[in-house]
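R.M. (postdoc): so does anyone remember the format we settled on? I'll just put the structure tokens first.
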């Protein structure tokens, strides 16, 4: 039995994660972290299952009271970083779905996990199809190094570019020479027109109501283009990956950044 605490249970992702943990035989929902509802139970929260799971507003109090194995964090960038650090300091293995971690944040958490000899996972995207999109993009970039990334999300998203787009660019950077794309004399006559620049690759972020999470990686070569696209049309699409990460984090003793290291 793996005892799990979920931070952000009222959110889009948190609600689905609560449901998934309650429905999984080998998981037990030990508690949830919700800054607005400390002292209540899950059953008191609107739209959440009728379960006698304690709600804590203070993460350290939650870890001490419930002694969980795993923290699943689905909050926001600032809170996710604080929760991850507190989890590791209190002997709890973090599974972080929250995006907005910089390379320096990942490095800092990696050192902390190593010093505590605890498994930890930061997963910019839990959807299996999105992980395959990233892997396929890395393979394609070996042969077609000119590439741009277009990510599309709902308009409630706090961070841009998405964690998935940044991770995709990092994976591509591992296999291609650094290069500047477009015309060498290219100039933006409107700032931002060419998007964000990661090692010469451009990322374009769209935010619209009606979208969930979508990404297209477009490669260009002489006389041809290749498009690799993934769409999450609901948040249940992420749950098999969350489940897999909760199991895997119990088997490892270091930080893993990205589920592509787990799905070989
Ligand atoms: N890795 C992946 O596959 C995926 C990752 N994500 C990421 O997960 C995160 C959550 O996304 P989503 O569910 O759509 O966002 P929501 O805004 O729907 O949910 C975020 C939740 O976090 C809560 N929260 C905010 N601050 C705190 C805090 N200090 N303590 C405890 N809870 C807090 C909010 O509650 P309130 O503010 O009301 O207190 C809210 O319920 C984002 O970073 C997103 O990018 C999303 C989808 C997939
Ligand atoms: O905020 C979201 O919704 C999502 N965030 C993640 C990201 O930033 O890549 C994963 C997925 O795209 C949904």
């Amino acid at each position: 039995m793996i005892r799990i605490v979920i931070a952000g249970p009222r959110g889009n992702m948190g609600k689905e994660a609560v449901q998934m943990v309650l429905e999984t035989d080998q998981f037990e929902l030990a508690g949830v972290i919700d800054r607005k509802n400390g002292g209540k139970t899950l059953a008191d929260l609107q739209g959440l299952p009728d379960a006698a799971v304690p709600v804590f507003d203070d993460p350290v109090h939650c870890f001490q009271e419930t002694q969980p194995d795993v923290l699943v964090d689905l909050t926001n960038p600032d809170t996710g970083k604080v929760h991850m650090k507190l989890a590791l300091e209190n002997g709890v293995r973090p599974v972080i779905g929250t995006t907005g971690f910089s390379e320096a944040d990942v490095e800092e958490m990696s050192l902390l996990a190593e010093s505590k000899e605890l498994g930890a996972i930061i997963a910019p995207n839990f959807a299996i199809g999105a992980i395959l999109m990233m892997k396929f993009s890395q393979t394609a970039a070996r042969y077609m190094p000119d590439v741009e990334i277009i990510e599309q999300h709902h308009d409630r998203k706090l961070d841009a570019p998405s964690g998935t787009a940044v991770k995709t660019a990092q994976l591509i950077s591992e296999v291609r020479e650094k290069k500047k794309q477009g015309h060498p004399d290219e100039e933006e006559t409107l700032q931002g027109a060419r998007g964000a620049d990661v090692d010469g690759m451009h990322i374009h972020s769209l935010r619209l109501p009606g979208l969930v999470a979508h990404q297209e990686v477009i490669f260009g070569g002489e006389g041809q283009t290749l498009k690799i696209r993934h769409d999450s049309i609901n948040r249940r699409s992420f749950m098999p990956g969350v489940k897999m990460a909760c199991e895997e984090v119990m088997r490892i003793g270091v930080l893993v950044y990205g589920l592509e290291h787990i799905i070989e």
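R.M.: ...and that's the designed sequence above, right after the tokens. Also worth knowing: The longest helix spans residues 128-143. The radius of gyration is 19 Å.
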